[in-house]
Write a sequence for this structure.
């Protein structure tokens, strides 16, 4: 079913749909200004959206700086979660890094977001640290890293 989704570069025209998904998926969503900056002005941004029937159903926002990537945000709208959209978005990031390897990808994830932690582990991410009271809610974050030597190491 995932083959029906198109992955493309995210742009400022996607902002209104991204804001809606952000609000539905995250308890502590990014602001409109933060998201707009990432889409329009962030020079190191690698942002992608998943589109189904002309509608944004997921997105990935990251910064790529030489051999270090920070995965800032990955969200899939609730009605299509579990259909491979997140996997497609992650694969688009990994494929974009083939010429830059070796690469380390870092991310933070809420320590109680077991579904996301398991998802990232499928891509080879490992916990390396934690950040106390990282989120506005006071919840801790796990810091995870994935070291890419070759794209073939991806186990999704």
């Amino acid at each position: 079913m995932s083959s029906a989704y198109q992955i493309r570069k995210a742009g400022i025209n996607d902002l209104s749909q991204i804001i809606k998904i952000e609000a539905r998926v995250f308890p502590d969503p990014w602001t409109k200004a933060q998201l707009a900056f990432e889409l329009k002005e962030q020079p190191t941004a690698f942002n992608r959206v998943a589109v189904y029937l002309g509608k944004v159903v997921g997105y990935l926002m990251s910064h790529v700086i030489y051999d270090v990537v920070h995965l800032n945000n990955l969200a899939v709208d609730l009605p299509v979660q579990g259909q491979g959209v997140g996997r497609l978005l992650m694969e688009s990031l990994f494929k974009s890094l083939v010429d830059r390897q070796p690469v380390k990808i870092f991310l933070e994830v809420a320590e109680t977001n077991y579904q996301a932690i398991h998802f990232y582990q499928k891509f080879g991410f490992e916990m390396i640290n934690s950040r106390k009271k990282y989120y506005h809610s006071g919840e801790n974050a796990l810091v995870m890293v994935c070291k890419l030597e070759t794209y073939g190491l991806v186990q999704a």
